[in-house]
Amino acid sequence: MEIPVAGKSTNQVFGKRRQQHVVILASGDKIRHMTIRPWMAGLALCFVGMMAIGYLGATTYLVFRDNLIGASMARQARMQHEYEDRIAALRAQVDRVTSRQLLDQQVVEEKVEKLLEQQMALTTRHGRLGALLDRAEAAGELPSSGPLPTVKPNTDNRQASLSGGVQAIEKLLGGKPDTSQSSTTALGYVPLQDTVADRADRVFSHMTLSLKDIEQDQLERIQRLTTGASATADEISGILRRNGVAVDDEISLQDSDAIGGPYMAPQPSEAFNASLNELDAALSRLETVRDTAKRLPFANPAPGKDITSRFGNRPDPFFGGLAMHAGIDFRSPVGGEIRSTGAGKVIAAGPAGGYGNMVEIDHGLGITTRFGHMSRILVKVGDEVASGDLIGLSGNTGRSTGPHIHYEVRRNGEAVDPMHFLNAGMKLTSLID
């Protein structure tokens, strides 16, 4: 129970005094009273106000806290989704780069294998070509190709560069797939850079061009040699044919060694191998016709000696009437050298009627030569002689009126004019030496 009590009081110094509020609390017989001063009311009012403000603040915080937490969680979830999407994209691109590098490595390995096969084929070709060039050099100067170069194709430097290129490709193959750019680039796409296959493609293209240049150079050289060998062989064959020697028929017989077997279609060959085969055939034909020409009697039996009597009808030195002279006579004193005019086998060596001491040599292909009126024979039957070998000395034996060299050429037993062979020999000198 509150009973305000008001009393009059005066303040001698400050004037009227404020009225005080007294709060009386009664509980049974006990009565308490409490004087409420203004500052206490103000303090209570401030406390109540602070409590109200705190309550309102807490309420406001709780109300907005859920919105803030929801927004923050939504933002974090969105950022996480974006991060995961970009990580997935980077991982896919890393896989794509790795797959491409692995595929490029397989492609490069295949190209290296192909390149090594080409280089091995080139080395094999060079070995075969070297053997053919040695034969061509032994053949001497060919009219269609000019003087034959003595230097083989300069492929050492090119092959060294090719070997270096192969090593470069193998070095590229030794590297592992490079994924560092993808791993160091955060939250972004990595553009594809120059790959191993791209670099290997450039090296491979360069070496392929080098191989093609070498092969083209070899093909041109082979073609020139083939043309020259064929032209020389044709020229020698023409001279031989004009003298009744069918050397091409002999070559055909030599090449016809096949005697049977089941038929199989011919296998196609590469252009390079075909060119080598053509050159091989041309050189073989040239060697055959040259050997034939060297074997046949195209040389002079008495170099530097004058011809005193030619082939054909002439007055007989013993009877005076016309008589057939089956050879030609060379002026030579007794003891002059007589040399074989071609390679062959001695089939007669001794006295032979009107020939006196005679030597007959079989040169093959039905061609034989006879040397008569010798003073001395230096060979015997069965001897093999080469062109230019000394076979006897001139004399005056047999049906002869003076020392000289009687020389005959016979084809299939019939005498032919030796001058045809001597003139052909002068033309063949530059072709068979």
TrEMBL record:
Which molecular function terms from Gene Ontology are attached?
metal ion binding; metalloendopeptidase activity
Q: Which Pfam family, just one, is annotated for this protein?
A: Peptidase_M23
Domain called M23ase beta-sheet core: residue spans: 324-418
**What InterPro entries does the database record attribute to this sequence?**
Cell_wall_metabolism_enzyme, Dup_hybrid_motif, M23ase_b-sheet_dom
Q: Give the organism, scientific name.
A: Rhizobium terricola
Cofactors = Zn(2+)
- Name the CDD domains on file: M23_peptidase (cd12797)
State the name under which the record lists this protein: M23 family metallopeptidase
> Transmembrane ranges?
39-64
Say if the entry is tagged with keyword Hydrolase: yes
List the keywords (alphabetical): Hydrolase, Membrane, Metal-binding, Metalloprotease, Protease, Transmembrane, Transmembrane helix, Zinc
Which PANTHER family does the UniProt record give? CELL DIVISION PROTEIN YTFB, PEPTIDASE-RELATED
| SUPFAM superfamilies listed in its UniProt record | Duplicated hybrid motif
